[in-house]
């Protein structure tokens, strides 16, 4: 019993119960389990640095083993090792390597695919411009096949790398948003592929967040890859199509002609109709509850 300042007696809380040498604290309400934050360790840091170094080394070796590079073409391919960020960069690259690509299509496709996978794996901007180059160098059918294939490989690399390090990154950059994403994923376990597709074609979440957080909240790998490849296909389709007339367009916005936009809006509406009829995902960041000990104070 505890006596307060007013003279009243209040029953003190019962001590924790011990079960087989372990202390068990009873609580009135059990909270649902949430993914726990992972600490950055030297092993994770070395893994990230090592993976990056391996990719860069591979790109360097690939470049120096390319056949019969003239000096001017070599300078253009060196620029290709840095993912282009602007339309002007893509036009310069196309002019530099178009003649080389005609004689060495396989090696050119390998360089382009390697840079694309590198950019997608480490969330480096420039993949849309690389899709433009695919259309400019290889035409529509070969270009779209190349982009879909390397998109599949790049998203797979991204998923498995973030399986290792994504938890440490996600909970430092987007702590509340990851918890909200976890709740939305749990609601849609039965239709996860459609849900990832839905996120890729809508502006609810940025692609970088989806890439990093999906392994953290246990999105299945097949659903992630299929949803990513199909969800990014409309943009890649238009980029490859626009790449075929790269010398004619002056800005990225010109590749979205009304007929192409209307076609994909109609297809997207039919595919997303079930999701549109359902309540919109709630990714509002919530304030974290204070521990019970602090509330008691």
TrEMBL record:
**TM segment ranges:** 40-64, 109-133, 139-162, 195-213, 219-238, 259-278
InterPro entries (UniProt xref): TM41A/B, VTT_dom
Q: How does it sit in the membrane?
A: Multi-pass membrane protein
Any one GO CC term of this protein is: membrane
Q: Does the keyword Membrane feature in the UniProt annotation?
A: yes
Cite a single Pfam family from the UniProt record.
VTT_dom
Which protein is depicted? Answer: VTT domain-containing protein
User: What species does this protein belong to?
Assistant: Pyramimonas obovata
């Amino acid at each position: 019993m505890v006596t307060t300042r007013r003279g009243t007696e209040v029953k003190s809380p019962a001590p924790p119960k011990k079960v087989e040498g372990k202390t068990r604290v009873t609580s009135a309400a059990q909270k649902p389990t949430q993914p726990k934050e992972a600490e950055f360790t030297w092993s994770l840091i070395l893994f990230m640095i090592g993976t990056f170094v391996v990719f860069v080394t591979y790109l360097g070796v690939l470049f120096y083993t390319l056949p019969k590079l003239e000096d001017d073409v070599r300078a253009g391919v060196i620029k290709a090792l840095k993912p282009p960020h602007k339309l002007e960069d893509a036009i310069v690259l196309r002019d530099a390597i178009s003649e080389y690509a005609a004689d060495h299509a396989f090696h050119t496709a390998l360089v382009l695919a390697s840079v694309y996978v590198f950019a997608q794996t480490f969330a480096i901007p420039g993949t849309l411009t690389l899709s433009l180059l695919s259309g400019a160098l290889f035409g529509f059918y070969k270009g779209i096949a190349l982009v879909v294939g390397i998109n599949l490989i790049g998203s797979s690399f991204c998923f498995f790398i973030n399986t290792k390090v994504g938890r440490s990154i996600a909970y430092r950059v987007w702590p509340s948003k990851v918890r909200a994403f976890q709740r939305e994923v749990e609601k849609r376990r039965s239709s996860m592929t459609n849900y990832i597709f839905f996120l890729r074609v809508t502006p609810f979440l940025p692609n970088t967040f989806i890439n990093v957080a999906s392994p953290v909240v246990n999105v299945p790998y097949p659903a992630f890859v299929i949803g990513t490849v199909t969800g990014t296909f409309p943009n890649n389709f238009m980029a490859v199509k626009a790449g075929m007339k790269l010398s004619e367009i002056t800005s990225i916005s010109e590749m979205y002609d009304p007929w192409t936009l209307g076609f994909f809006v109609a297809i997207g509406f039919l595919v997303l109709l079930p999701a549109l009829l359902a309540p919109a995902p709630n990714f509002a960041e919530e304030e974290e509850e204070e521990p019970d000990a602090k509330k008691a104070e």
